[in-house]
Amino acid sequence: MLSISLLVLVTGCYLLLLFLIAFIGDKYQLPKRVKPVVYSLGLGVYCTSWAFYGVTGQAATTGWWLTPTYTGAILVFIFAWPLVLKVAKICRQQSLTSLADFISSRYGKSTRLAGLITLVSVAAIIPYIALQLRAMTDSFTAVTQYQNSNGIFDISLVFSVMLAMFAILFGTRRIRPSEQNPGLLMAISFESIVKLVTFLLVGIFVCFWMFSSPAQLLAAAREHQAIIAISAPPSYVYLTQALLGVLMMFCLPRQFHMAFIEQKTESELISARWLFPLFLIALNVFALPIAYAGLILFANQDVGSDSFMLQLPIYADNEWMTLVSYLGGFSAATSMVIVATIVLSIMVSNDLITPKLLAREQGRSTVFRLNHQLSPNRLLMIRRITIATILLAAWAYYQSISNTELLAVTGLMAMTLVAQFAPAMIFGLTWNRANHTAAYRSIVTGTLVWAYTLLLPSMLQDTQFYHHYFAEGLFNQQWLIPTALFGIEIDFIAHGVLMSLILNVLVFIYYSLSKTPSMAERLQARNYLLSPEAQEQLLPGNTPLTVNDVRALLSRFFGEDYAQAIIDCHYQDKQVHGEYLISTELEAKVEQELSGVIGGPSARLLLNSAKSQRHAKVNDVVDIVDEASELLRFNRSLLQATIQNVNQGIAVVDKELRLVAWNRRYIEMFDYPEEQIYVGRPVEEVIRFNANRGFFGDSPKQQEIEKRITYLRQGIPYRFQRVQKSGKVYEMNGNPLPGGGFVTTYADITDFVKTQKALEEINAHLESRVEQRTADLQRLNQALAEAKQDAEQANINKSRYFAALSHDLLQPFNAANLFSSILQEKCDDKDIRELSKNISYSLENAEQLLSSILELTKLDAGTIRPHIEDFYLGTFLQPICDEFRLLAEEKGLRFQANVDNVGTRSDKTLLRRVIQNLLTNAIRYTEQGQVELSLERQGMDILIHIKDSGIGIKEQDQQRIFNDFEQINQNKEQGLGLGLAITSRICKILGIGLTLNSTFGRGSEFTIVLPVIALSDKPVPQELTSPVNRQDLKSLKVLIIDNDDAVLVAMDKRLSEWGCQAWQAKDQQTAIAVTEQHQPQLIIADYHLDDGVTGLQVVNFIHQQVDANIPIIINSADHSEEIREQIREQGFQFLNKPVKPAALKRTIKQLVK
User: Domain Histidine kinase, which positions (predicted)?
Assistant: First the structure.
């Protein structure tokens, strides 16, 4: 025996493993080649704990080596394959959510039929779940000898709670049950593997450890009396249960869900066609050997054959194999319970609760309450409560009958009950006369016959009531005996199956022939009977739903962004206004989307409530009247609710000038006694009543009455105001109604009149005040204009100062850096080389510090103004990725880039600076691994992720790193602590989001958030300067253009050391002369030359004069993004001064490769 603590620990760990697998399945996408295998194993939910334990028991009593229900399932994949493909295709096209949704959608999307199927399914599955709880509890008790009479700590209740938590956590995470649930599917597939492996392990253990070989076991079985005495039931029993196996592949709610709702593509079904039958056969390989071993070893013991799988390892005193057997049965039970409760919760919420909420709201004051009643959170909560309720009911059922024999036949009885859906499903897929009445009444008939032939004898057979009323047949009619209906005495289960299905089919055929399908049923039948091509030819015209209607409906369930995305996807580039009438295709898409949330019947009911009329052919009008009546009743209640809740008084008279409608506000405004206002009262009497109360002042009463009656009779619109005795002012608006009658509205405009008078008084003094204020404003505007001009000039001067300062300060660093690198390479003295290296490092730090301080100063001074434009992100990022890929490879890192051409809007120059800073940091602080740049679409935003596998940042430091001169890792000689400060300031200027997600020791991820913009023009690849086709730098002819003599000498020396031939030029004239004489293959030019001339102007002039496309490198001590952008637009390379030799050499090689 195993200890309770060990078994509880193992059980808990197993459930935690399921949680982990489901979590991984939800978070990570499976490889495409693995998905069909996972889907096929998911179909293993068909095999419950009865399949794990009961198969051996059935083999022990019947001698069957292959369970008949498995045989039926295998036959489906061999002979009913076209039907399987058809059902799967319909589920995908219609976004169906459950078995009830599938059948009810075929019959005009009947809410009533869906509710019936749901109720029958609940009645069938709850006892079936109780059977699984019994299996788990019995196996736990058998392994541990645990007994506890205190129900609060009942182990079955503990199991129920754990399974409810799992089902709620991973079965109700999505609002749309038609969406696949990869985490759940992966967990169920894992449980199928556990079932199969544990069954095979126990079989091998029995055949090769408990017996020396299968041959010895078979020899002992041939001589054992209990095995010799096994008598197989009649063949019709096997065939009847095989028929149940066939029908369960379509009619069992959990199997339908896993087979047809969770499948995405036809390729998954094709793989399952051979994988699933092999799985079922493998589960039966050792059924007979284990049964024989149990009969031999427990011949003289009171051990049930259903428990041989568990009792044999216990008998052998092998704790490990006992644990394996327990886990196999536990996995079989949990997989069934989890999927069954999730599926039932979908059916109950979509087909029972949601339609009731919709129907209740139709009778209330406004349909806007639907937004609350059917919110996504409300629907998910309904499903969670349903799961908990179902498991609680199953546990209560198990507790109430756990000491009876009813659970022994529960599995086959549950299968028989859900098999009553088969005629409605199969006829619905094959016969155009199948109708809602036939489906509904056939299921009711089959259910009643099932209750009479199976449920009644099972529950009441040993009671006096049964013996008194049913033992000899109802009303003492022999042909009405429940177990021998019509005098047919056969196997108990076989009798119930055949009687219920035969009568079910007969009722279906009778009502299909005697009733004509409604228009809605005929329209919906096309989706089940006709090919998509044939359906397109029968589509009706436009319906009067507008784009605004569709947007409002979808927004309540999916949000405004998703609703607009559906509309944009349908109309693509076409511009449509809100009152544009939608097409039938879009309405079908809307209904499909809604069906994925609240089921087909509820989606149809909601759309009918939204539509006020519909077009149809003349010969179809009569068929639509019945369906339209529900809509008309809704409209009437909506109109009445609207009238009662407006602020204005409303009174309506018919063409006979009799009062027919009014609202509460009308009564309140004129203070009518209750007895004065009633339907049918002549409006003349009401007017006279008001005249007698002095409402018309001193005017002649009869004259005022006749004037108003004349307006009403002639249908003349009118509008006038009247001051009441109370001082209130009412405005009356009267308008004729089509077909006769008149509607008058009464508005209290007292506050408006008071305001109007006050405005008139104010207006009398307004002109002089306006003239005075105008003069004041002119003076202020003049002062503001002068101040603005001064500020703009100051900014211009400041920008020029920064540019000149950065150029003049950094120019000497350039020459010093080049000389230092030459000294470092040429000097053989180790100490001097080390000293030269230190000088280079100090120069580089000083240059970085100076550049960063200048850039921060410009950012803080506000001299940088973003130039916002629309561009393609992929085209923008590609050069940056190419540049940093080289830097990463030089450091031995992998650089991955995943970018798409998504349109966005920002300042390209500043955005490039942000991305370069982040990539520089990522490479700088990563010693091994990779740096990754990727894009992610999130609604109307595009996210740029820059991720590294570097040292990471501690949580307490993640805010601090954006401060000036803040450097977290002080031990490393890395950076100056200004890069992220600059990045943060630029992001604020651009108005874009910047977030950090980092784990210390594992790396960091920065995310930039940009808007998604739809661009009409296609991205144009940037043309770069043609490179020289060379493999090295030897004898490369280079022209150097710079106005600083030290830089010219240093650059000449540096290039000569690399084997290049270099010529110097300080101005345009010299550069032209050198070019014409020596034909350089590369030009390196400073941006700022003397007399306001730029290197960019010089090289462009050279291109024009010599008519040669020479590769160009522009370098500058001015690091402004404007200069970088100008150079890149010309297709030239840009390097910052001081020029780093390594970067210079890498760039030259890139151009001359």
Answer: 804-1014
